[in-house]
Design a protein that fits this description.
Elements lengths: L1 E5 L3 H11 L7 E5 L2 H10 L2 E7 L7 H11 L3 E6 L4 H9 L4 E4 L4 H31 L6 H7 L4 H12 L3 H19 L5 H7 L5 H12 L3 H11 L2
Parallel strand pairs: 1-2, 1-3, 3-4, 4-5
Keywords: DNA-binding, Phosphoprotein, Transcription, Transcription regulation
Pfam families: HTH_18, Response_reg
Organism: Lysinibacillus capsici
Length: 232
Amino acid sequence: MNILIADDEPLELEQMIYLLKPHFPNWTFHTAQDASQALQLAKKHRMTIAFLDIQMPGKDGITLSKELKALYEVDIIMVTAYQTFEYAQQALRIGVKDYLTKPVIASELDAIVEKYKVWSSNHDAIQSALSYIHENYYEKLSLNIIAEKIHLNPSYLSRKFLEEQSIGINEYINNYRLEMAVKKINENLDTSMSAIAESCGFNSQHYFSVAFKKKYNQSPRQYKSSKMSKGL
């Protein structure tokens, strides 16, 4: 996951990373010294949290917040040396999650990021589920099997997987298997469709064909024929 930190003072950027890193050792930190650079980073990497200095050269943090939220949903924490009611009002109106004043105190930052540590733990669990699917897609897979392997409650895994991936776990497995099937067809056009289906975890060639056609608007054989005619 990605965290954006925008501040025109390099020392402030270093300090924020120093304070945040112990909380999110596996997250990626992106730093910017002005709003333009921050916006470019946000377009390239989907940010989960953005710590924005209100006073920066060019666009201020309030304007940057609006532009970030126009891209996608991101939790914004304002950081400023100015403890003014006007700034606080503006921040609340655009949906800023929290407000930190400089110099940033570790205990105040800890209180703000506590909820994200739970989110980070959930994210790690989903990554474990994805890794297991990717490594074992050709085996028998189900929600219960995966939940048991990564030591999670099946209902909890199902709910959190859908929240983070915006797709159910069974649908994800099916899509990944189909993607692997396409890869295997491309790698060896001589392989039979029954062998492809079996090697990708489909125990029914008929179901494989139906699912393939639904996803790619052509049957596996039609896809294979088109590749052969083009000489791949």
